[in-house]
Amino acid sequence: MDLKDRDLNIYIRELSSPEDDLLKELDRKTNLCSTQPRMLSGHIQGKILQMLIKMLDPKRILEIGTFTGYSAICMAQAMSEESLLYTIDINDELSYIAEEFFIRSGLSDKIDYRIGNALKIAPELNKTFDLVYMDGDKREYPQYYRMLMDNNLLHSNSFILADNILWDGKVTDNSPKTLKDTYTAGIKEFNETVRNDSRVEVVILPIRDGMSIIRVK
User: Fold this and answer.
1) pLDDT-based confidence at 5, cuts 50/70/90?
2) Exposed, middle or buried: residue 68 (CB in 10 Å: 0-12, 13-18, 19+)?
3) Cβ of 2: how many Cβ atoms within 10 Å?
4) Which is nearest to 164 in space by CA: 26, 57, 27, 64?
5) HSE-CB of 106 using CA atoms within 13 angstroms
6) Mean pLDDT of all residues in the chain?
7) Residue 180 above 90 pLDDT?
8) Beta bridge partners of 92
9) Which of 173, 152, 161 lies closest to 210 in space, CA to CA?
10) What SS3 class is residue 213?
11) What percent of the chain has pLDDT over 90?
12) Which of 208, 107, 108 is nearest to 162 (CA)?
């Protein structure tokens, strides 16, 4: 990141609504306990999720990829009283952090947290979702999308928010090394699949590592 980008990021953070103390603490703990703290959504993306939740007012939300629970707490903070968030992560290594902060947030009754493979668990919930936040294994993004679209998990005017869809700019990198990367391949396949699916409309936002907003027609 060059100085101009760094200064702009500081400016954006300083002029956006502040991050609450519990989320700041969760960010710090994630950085101390995780080998990949960049996976955490963070202040600005968390605020964007909250704004979208408040605008769309989804009653049933599915999150694929909990990590340490930052994005789940952000969404739950913005949800209406009757809303419920199902969040699934395949890795239980950091589940103790998510569980601790869900309880401390006072929102654990609005968060149904499950460990396992979302491709198996989500269809078994037998629910239709108003909004899905996709932030799991990038190699499996195409499978997540097909699961959501082909198993009656969404309805007309449901939204999918897909994170990391620019993948550090690797989606436009055609070097031999990048072309062999299965994570980049998964993201590119997902982006192209969504773009060519007449059942949806999509826009890509260049926020952090890129976010797609997808609406089912």
Assistant:
1) confident
2) buried
3) 7
4) 64
5) 3
6) 95
7) no
8) none
9) 161
10) strand
11) 86
12) 208
pLDDT tens digits along 80-111:
999 999 999 999 999 999 999 999 999 999 99
What is the helix (H) or strand (E) element at residue 189, kind and residue range?
A: helix 182-195
Sorting pLDDT into bands at 50, 70 and 90, what band is 63? very high
The one-letter code for the residue type at 11 is Y
Question: What pLDDT score was predicted for residue 174?
Answer: 87
With H, G, I as helix, E, B as strand and everything else as coil, classify residue 207: coil
The tally of CA atoms less than 13 A away on the side-chain side of residue 39 is: 19
Label each residue of 24-90 as H, E or C. HHHHHHHHHHCCCHHHCCCHHHHHHHHHHHHHHCCCEEEEECCCCCHHHHHHHHHCCCCCEEEEEEC
Q: Which two tokens stand for residue 7?
A: 């200064």
Residues 6+ apart with CB under 8 A from 30: 37, 40, 67, 68, 70, 94, 97
